[in-house]
Amino acid sequence: MHEQRQTLAIVWSNLMTSLFIPASAAKHCAKPGLQRLIFRSWWRPGSGSTRILASLLLSSAVTFAQAEENTSTLQRSLILGFVEFPPASYVDADGKPAGELLDLGQRALAEAGYSWEAKHYPANRLASYMGTGEVDLFLGISTVPGFEGNTIAGEKTIAHIELRAYAKGDAPVIERWEDLRGKTVIILRGYSYGGWIGEILDPANGINALEVDEHEQALKVLNLGRGDILLDYKSPVDTALRQVEVPDLQSTLISLLNCKFVVSRKTPQAQKVLTDLEAAFERLEEREAVY
Fold it and tell me: What is the pTM of this model?
């Protein structure tokens, strides 16, 4: 309500200025009684004031609508959700959000004029919260299970992620999901694997899926010989290998996956938020300030 009164005061000031009343005086004319007095003294039927007034009111209405739009969009901080995916996004030793992708998101949000708060979630919960609107924004792969129908993704690719197949001994030959048939495949809960997750989890496809929660755990399971193939992403695996040694580990690239801005459909003016962020990213690119 306070913001609406401020907005109406601005609209009235603009109207007074349009009537050639100085801005310094217009602010003193915002009281309802003075408004009626000014209107009666200015209004002259048949003098063309009808058209002028209509034009002024239309202009003021546009100003009010624009101000209301900006107010509703920026009323609260956007919640930027992220998963443990080092070095792109992770919680550092001090318990704070960190990572290359989060840094990029922070710069784009600041450039677009939005305040934000980053929060860490397990992958499944993040997808659920994007659907309910408890999380507004995600920077990453747009094919995450649970995103379809609940989010809108940008057209702009802001980063790439390598999806790889890992095995001990010989390098695995995995080009399509069908190559996983008859194998025990280690996967992490909540990840989409470039859209393969539906086929991997479908019992009819003859793939034995072994789900774990962390990248370090996935490497340990592979090292113990409990799985034939580990499907995972290069960046977090490289980080996990600093903690977990896996002798004779081999890998092959399956695909390069595109990261995008993904906005919850429940976020107020979701399309505007997405458009603003993509425009901000383009400006950062032009200034070579992306990475």
Answer: 0.70
